[in-house]
Design brief:
By secondary structure, this protein is of the alpha/beta class. The protein contains nine helices and eleven strands. Strands 3, 4, 5, 6, 9, 10 and 11 form a seven-stranded mixed beta sheet that branches. Strands 1-2 form a two-stranded antiparallel ribbon.
Length: about 300
């Protein structure tokens, strides 16, 4: 066996996935394999490389220092393969190809759909396949190779230092204050978040939107009292319309309702930040780059 033959890309991908997911069972689920197949492949890889890769820790396993060394080198290999695949696709198809996009719910109508419409005119050979996913899940899909591009919130995204991804800032989405139509502040000349410090607030019990709402209110000098908990914008705005409380709503997610007044908070200027990400090296592919360009153009309109 030649020295380089022992570097089996498929088995290295399994080892990398194990480090990301922590257990053999979770790794098998992520890769659509059986746990026994995962264990067998990793055992074979250890034999091929001539070093122990795993240590048993109760019901879990721990990667050895040798495994971490292997993965440090494998990261450069995976990045180069992504780049090679992107360049080969561009060579074979030019401006054609399929790009799979994972995006959170409000980004689909506000950013992805306008981008797809524009691409139909300017790059008709590029096909975009959309998969709605929660902000954090989009990165799991990206890491697993199930999507080529992920749209998420910056608060839910891996850090810029994560070697697996390249991040692209897209949009600072303003947060507006949703008030019942008969609320005294609905007709005020200027509205600040602090004006609603005593109001019952409507937002999710946990997750990014809870964190964003609490952080915006705390920056305005108060901790919001959560009168009701809801995750969907339809439910939140229905409760605001019924006079049950107030809410912060991203401008991208705002849907007109007769009984709800949306007030801009120019003084406080709260935002949520939307980012796109691709696997490092894949951003050099023509099709992925064209979709990123279309998303940047679509992001200009809601931000204005």
């Amino acid at each position: 066996m030649a020295e380089y033959d022992r570097w089996d890309i498929k088995k290295l991908r399994i080892l990398r996935t194990l480090r990301e997911h922590g257990t053999v069972t979770a790794t098998a689920e992520a890769l659509a394999l059986t746990p026994s197949a995962v264990s067998q492949q990793l055992t074979n890889l250890a034999k091929q490389l001539g070093v122990p890769l795993l240590e048993a820790r109760g019901r879990r396993v721990r990667l050895t220092d040798a495994a971490e060394l292997v993965l440090r080198h494998a990261a450069a290999v995976f990045e180069q393969l992504e780049r090679a695949d992107a360049e080969l696709t561009a060579y074979q198809h030019g401006e054609a190809g399929e790009v799979r996009v994972g995006a959170f719910s409000t980004a689909v109508p506000a950013l992805v759909v306008p981008a797809v419409r524009a691409l139909r005119v300017t790059r008709p050979g590029i096909r975009v396949q959309v998969r709605e996913a929660e902000a954090a899940q989009a990165y799991e899909l990206l890491a697993a190779g199930s999507v080529d591009l992920a749209l998420s919130l910056a608060a839910q995204a891996p850090t810029a230092a994560d070697p697996r991804f390249s991040r692209v800032p897209l949009l600072a989405d303003p947060l507006d204050l949703a008030l019942p139509r008969d609320h005294a502040l609905a007709r005020a000349d200027e509205v600040r978040l602090a004006d609603c410090a005593a109001e019952p607030w409507i937002f999710g019990g946990s997750g990014p939107w809870s964190d964003i709402t609490r952080a915006a209110c705390e920056s305005a000098g108060f901790s919001p009292h959560q009168g009701h908990s809801a995750a969907g914008w339809t439910a939140i705005l229905a409760m605001v319309e019924a006079g049950m409380g107030v809410a912060l709503v991203p401008r991208m997610a705002s849907v007109p309702r007769d009984g709800v007044v949306m007030r801009r908070l120019d003084a406080d200027r709260p935002h949520r930040h939307v980012v796109a990400a691709v696997r490092r090296g894949a951003d050099e592919g023509a099709a992925v780059g064209r979709v990123l360009d279309a998303l940047r153009e679509a992001a200009v309109r809601p931000a204005s």
